């Protein structure tokens, strides 16, 4: 992995692999995890920021400035489609997000 000097690396996924964070020290690189639901899980004082961030994100998606990672929509919401979506995710080869929508 090639790193830049004085940068930031942010992850939104967990890892089971061990990583030597000492490699970042001499480059002055920061590593952080971001979790969308931290504010609501811990009822932080700035919990209303979550609403503002999601509203802004929705606006940017609607304007086409940010492209969603949605790649597949399964409908309706039923046991068959939940099982299908789960099987697809379990393959480890899905790209983007799978949405199950619309109750019958």
Q: What is the element layout, followed by pairings?
A:
Elements: E1 8-11, H1 22-25, E2 30-33, H2 38-42, H3 48-62, E3 70-74, H4 79-90, E4 97-100
Parallel strand pairs: 1-2, 3-4
Structural description of this entry:
With 104 residues, this protein is of the alpha/beta class. It folds into 3 domains: 1-34, no CATH class; 43-67; 68-104, no CATH class. It is built from 4 helices and 4 strands. It has helices at residues 22-25, 38-42, 48-62, 79-90; strands spanning 8-11, 30-33, 70-74, 97-100. The strands form 2 sheets. It has a two-stranded parallel ribbon. A two-stranded parallel ribbon has the order 3-4. Helix 1 links the parallel strand 1 and strand 2. The longest helix has 15 residues, at 48-62. The chain is extended, with a radius of gyration of 18 Å. The protein starts with 7 loop residues before the first strand and ends with a strand.
């Amino acid at each position: 992995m090639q790193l830049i000097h004085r940068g930031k690396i942010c992850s939104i996924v967990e890892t089971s692999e061990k990583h030597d964070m000492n490699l970042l020290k001499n480059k002055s690189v920061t590593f952080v995890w971001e979790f969308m639901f931290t504010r609501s899980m811990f009822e932080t004082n700035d919990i209303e920021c979550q609403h503002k961030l999601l509203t802004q994100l929705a606006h940017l998606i609607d304007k086409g400035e940010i492209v969603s990672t949605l790649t597949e929509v399964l409908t309706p919401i039923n046991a068959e489609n939940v099982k299908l979506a789960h099987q697809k995710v379990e393959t480890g080869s899905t790209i983007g997000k799978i949405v199950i929508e619309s109750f019958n």
